[in-house]
Predict the 3D structure of the following.
Amino acid sequence: MLYDENDRVLGVRTGDKGIDAEGKPKANFEPGVDLFAKVTVLGEGVRGSLTKKLIQRLGLDQGREPQIYSLGVKELWELPDDRYPAGRVTHTLGFPSDQWTYGGGWIYGMQNRILNLGYVTGLDYRDPLIDPHAEFQKYKTHPFVTKLLSGGKMIRYGAKAIATGGLHAVPQLYADGVLLTGDSAGFLNGARLKGIHTAIKSGMLAAETIFDALVSNDFSAGKLQRYEHFVTAVGWEW
């Protein structure tokens, strides 16, 4: 992040290119580029590197609850028949997690006989030997899941960190010259299982706030705090 002498955000600096393993410039070295903006919008996902440094530097999490995290592991399966129709939704809780570990799964029927399933493990687990990926593999041994997958073929897989702290863990969303959106702000509504929707909506509200700031040529925290009012007072998120 780029700041002025008063900690106003001016933009970002891209990483240097052509650096060797010891951090020294190579023959093809290219320095990073400074990108300046009247308002910088951070939407870099869960625990993004720029967002972490910004929150720490400006104390945007003061008076807020600590953020907590989970890890979701997901697979897409191609089924041989219509045993699980498109549009059907199953949510599960518990198995294979023990009583001290937050965990739950999902199974979504998609078009063209595609099954979307996964399992979320809370990263505040007590057992240091827990492996979220292994928990998902155990999840698939449940008779209900095993029967669904029988004869199918796994065609895609992935994993994603999830910010599950909720409303009280959302940091201050604005400062001079900067706004936080999406997962960078912790906008997942875990109770409603809504994350993409809230990320898109936060981007829309950020755009409205920035437009108003451009009209008035005022990009201070006092002006940009209107964005946080949109998010918290209007109540669309929660």
User: Anything to note?
Assistant: The longest strand covers residues 153-163. The chain is about 25% helix and 30% strand. The helical segments are 49-58, 132-139, 143-149, 196-216, 221-232. The chain has two domains: 2-66+166-232, 69-159.
